[in-house]
Amino acid sequence: MRKLRERALAVMEHLEKHGFPSMVYGSIARGDVTPESDLDVFIPRVVPMQLLEYTVSLLQPIQKRVLVQATPYYAAKAYLYLNDRDTVSAPMVPLNRDEEGFYMLAGSLTVEELRQNVRKPGINKSLNLVIPTDFGHVEKPLASNFEEAVRVLRVSPDIITARMKVLLKRREKGRTGVFQSVQLGEDSSFEEAFRRLLAKSVALRKRALQ
User: Fold this and answer.
1) pLDDT one-digit tens code per residue, 16-46
2) Rounded distance, CA 38 to CA 40, Å?
3) Is-contact 59 20, C-beta < 8 A?
4) Nearest alpha-carbon partner for 77 in 41, 104, 123
5) DSSP, residue by residue, 148-195
6) I need a surface site. Which of 28, 126, 163, 187 has the fewest CB within 10 A?
7) 40-51, pLDDT tens digit by residue?
8) pTM
């Protein structure tokens, strides 16, 4: 966890220095990291993607660029891969309440909280409520600790219910749940790729207008 957090801090401080405040979310924020844990740095607002790409490239070369839409009704997001697992991402349209709530559910930290070595409670992909402790963390099944999750995470019950449905559906189908994913070529921009997706998808056009 220490190595992952040092890596996250280096990336986030670099982004902040160039005008891109970010957050890190997932196991690195909760503390339940494993050898397979990756680094997910997220900029929670729409930004000029070419400028963000340039900023990230000053830190290290970008391995690949991918435009992802998790479900037909979720905001499409641009992912910059620093390596096979670590990413910097940003939405192509403003996030709605449920999408913002996802990052609270997963557990998320600002750069200042990361500097202070804060850990946050959250829900992992196994549908467990993860609560940090002084000497590690405890995990509780979300289904039987729903009210505690609402209280601890400070989000509305409907946001937790929606997240449970998504994760259960992924588990049943044995899929990642990604609706569509497009890897960009060297000469393509995120804005161009997003326009092409908009032209093909009625659901995405409706989401973009929200």
Assistant:
1) 999 999 999 999 999 998 888 899 999 999 9
2) 6
3) no
4) 41
5) HHHHHHT--HHHHHHHHHHHHHHHHHTS---SEEEEPPTT--HHHHHH
6) 187
7) 999 999 999 999
8) 0.89
